[in-house]
Amino acid sequence: MPPIVQNLNNAADGDVQRIIFNSKGTKMMQINPLGFMCEYDFDRCTAAITNPHLIFPEQTSNYNRLFWSGAYSPNDSLFYISTNRFFGIDTSYLFQFDLTAANIPLSCDTLYQFVQPVQAGTIRLAPDNKLYMTCFYDWGFPGFPYPDSVRNMYNENLSVVNYPDSLGAACDFQPFSFYLGGKRTYWGLPNNPDYNLGAVVGSPCDTLSVGIAETETTSKASLHVFYNAAAEKLFINAQNFKGKYCTLQIFDVMGRKVFSSRKKIQPHYFTHDINCAALAKGMYIINLQTEKENLSKKFIKE
């Protein structure tokens, strides 16, 4: 099949040209560091890109929309943009736009500003329906890689939008709140396609067959925990987890329940963090249970 070539617009390269798809794969947003922002309809079957809705044209001077990365909210009603610092500007931002507003540019809400040497990085929607964002800590030339001595709250944590379908402060943006266990961030995040998007009902491009029976592969569920002693926070992640709802419980070594919470699971993934400041020092058992799975791990609060 020959490639499909379309001429969309005259947006300049500006070193970075981003395209971001919504959760249904029906819309495509294009942004760049020269302030360009335009949303299109996207046909997953034909790959046709149509109906451009220009939100911001490119700026030619007085640059103040240095768009770096973007992400749709899970229900596709909001769009988040992180900016970067070019042209001598020492501040970068996280913006939220209401795509249902009559005037989208006027709906812009500044959720956070990052001041040099901290620079906003990439923002992405995760399987748990939260948005995660990186930051780069500008320690000096050449920037990459970090020396081992450059470790701080800015480059050892991700920032999180906990409720990205909610407007303004209700989205609960928590900067530098997801500890990476000693790993460090730069500007980027993995660009992972959504392989669970599903078929378009009635679409001819989902009726293809090569005559080979598909073999279902299953992966064993796994539970990972990490306790950050400095922040007194416990980070819990489960993968390949089956079920719709789970009960998360923590027990002390005497079998006493010290924490319990019921949560909804996004297919095959679960992530949660718990403030452990009120827990006494000692060993604890974490139990994560659904109607199909039961996983346990230990952690020690020192």
Class by alpha and beta content: mainly beta
The poorly predicted ranges are 207-217
Please report the distance between the alpha carbons of the first and last residues. Answer: 60 Å
The SSE order reads: EEEEEEEEEEEEEEEEEEE
Strand residues, percent: 35-45%
> How many distinct folded domains?
2
Major sheet summary line: 4 strands, antiparallel
Task: Write structural notes for this entry.
The protein has 302 residues and is mainly beta. It folds into 2 domains: 18-179; 222-301, Sandwich (Immunoglobulin-like), CATH 2.60.40.3080. The chain has no helices and 19 strands. The chain has strands spanning 18-21, 27-31, 37-42, 49-56, 67-72, 78-83, 91-98, 109-115, 118-125, 131-137, 157-161, 173-179, 222-228, 233-241, 245-252, 257-264, 268-275, 282-289, 294-301. The strands form 5 sheets. A 4-stranded antiparallel sheet has the order 1-2-3-4, with no helix packed on it. A 4-stranded antiparallel sheet has the order 5-6-7-8, with no helix packed on it. A 4-stranded antiparallel sheet has the order 9-10-11-12, with no helix packed on it. A hairpin with a 4-residue loop joins β15 (245-252) and β16. The chain is globular and about 65 Å long. The model is unreliable at 207-217 (pLDDT under 50).
Notable features of this structure?
302 residues, mainly beta, Immunoglobulin-like, 2 domains, four-stranded antiparallel sheet, 0% helix, 44% strand
